[in-house]
Write a structure and sequence with these properties.
- By secondary structure, this protein is an alpha+beta fold.
- About 15% of the residues lie in helices and about 55% in strands.
- It has helices at about 1-10, 25-35, 85-100, 115-125, and strands spanning about 15-20, 45-50, 55-60, 65-75, 130-140, 145-160, 165-180, 180-200, 205-225, 235-250, 255-275, 275-295.
- The strands form 2 sheets. It has an 8-stranded antiparallel β-barrel with strand order 5-6-7-8-9-10-11-12. Strands 1-2-3-4 form a 4-stranded mixed beta sheet, covered by helices on one side.
- It is rod-shaped, with a radius of gyration of 42 Å.
- It starts with a helix and ends with a strand.
Length: about 300
């Protein structure tokens, strides 16, 4: 490689122009060509030396690399005993630095084989949805009626863009409560949808979001004294805004999750006796959900 650089340098005449510098152009040119071992070829380097009060600039147009190079020095450096030699060496060093790039080996890049694993990784980086499917058991409590419902639901959780996703579920709960006049049984069929945000922590997944839960509720009254109180069955829509937070722990594709939910039932169903409310499926309700599922 050293011999190639010598061949390149041995074929280099230099054109020099000086602006604002107390330099002899011909002397700088001769010294530069001497350092570059000028030969008979016509590869021509064009150099401009410019001096200001503070800066001494060397600008070179290099035809071999098709680049314009600039080097800035301090003007006081030219006050040495041999300013023309200093300027010529600055010019030559700039040219040699440019041409040394021609001697660098061209890097070879071997293409990695495209495998199913690498393709899957690229797709996931581009935002492929991640899906969780599962089922959970639920305990829902209505503080205003001291009513506790138990049941379960099926759930689908889809990651869409970055940390954002949606959670959809549908299920059923049932429960009962004693009142002063008898027992009231409650059945609820419902579904919910949430917009969720997630934080991945290795095996653990944290999530939270807001949405809406709705469905149908039924209250069945069974009086203690059928002669004094008439039992009835009431049905109505049930629903309102909801907020949910969850944590899931995964082992491979399988995870176990725990979630807390708070709802406010705008649509509600009341059970009454003698004009007074004895139980209600409505207002504030809170839920605890324990589930298991798979994700991929």
């Amino acid at each position: 490689m050293t011999s190639l650089l010598l061949v390149l340098l041995s074929a280099t005449p230099v054109d020099v122009t000086v602006s604002g510098c107390l330099l002899d152009e011909n002397k700088v040119r001769a010294l530069a060509e001497l350092e570059l071992h000028r030969g008979p070829e016509d590869v021509r380097v064009v150099a401009r030396l410019v001096c200001t009060e503070q800066r001494f600039e060397v600008q070179v147009d290099d035809p071999l690399t098709n680049k314009t190079l600039l080097r800035a020095l301090k003007t006081k450096d030219l006050t040495a005993a041999a300013p023309e030699r200093f300027a010529a060496l600055a010019l030559v060093e700039l040219v040699e630095a440019s041409w040394s790039e021609l001697l660098l080996p061209t890097p070879t890049v071997s293409a990695a084989p495209v495998t199913e694993t690498s393709t899957r990784a690229v797709v996931e980086q581009l935002g492929r949805p991640r899906v969780r499917l599962g089922a959970h058991g639920s305990a829902r409590y209505f503080p205003g009626a001291t009513l506790l419902l138990g049941g379960g639901a099926l759930m689908a959780h889809v990651r869409l863009i970055g940390p954002l996703g949606v959670r959809l579920e549908a299920g059923a709960e049932t429960g009962s409560v004693r009142t002063s006049v008898g027992r009231i049984s409650a059945d609820v069929l419902g579904a919910a949808g949430f917009v969720m945000a997630h934080l991945d922590l290795g095996r653990f997944l944290l999530g939270g979001g807001a949405g809406f839960r709705g469905g149908a509720a039924r209250l069945i009254g069974t009086p203690d004294d059928a002669a004094a109180v008439q039992g009835r069955t009431l049905s109505a829509a049930l629903g309102g805004p909801s907020a949910l937070g969850e944590v899931a722990a995964g082992i491979g594709p399988v995870d176990v999750s725990f979630a807390l939910e708070a709802d406010w039932a705008i649509w509600r169903l009341d059970a009454r006796a003698d004009g007074a409310s004895v139980s209600s499926v409505g207002g504030l309700w809170v839920s605890a959900l324990l589930g298991a599922g798979v994700r991929w």
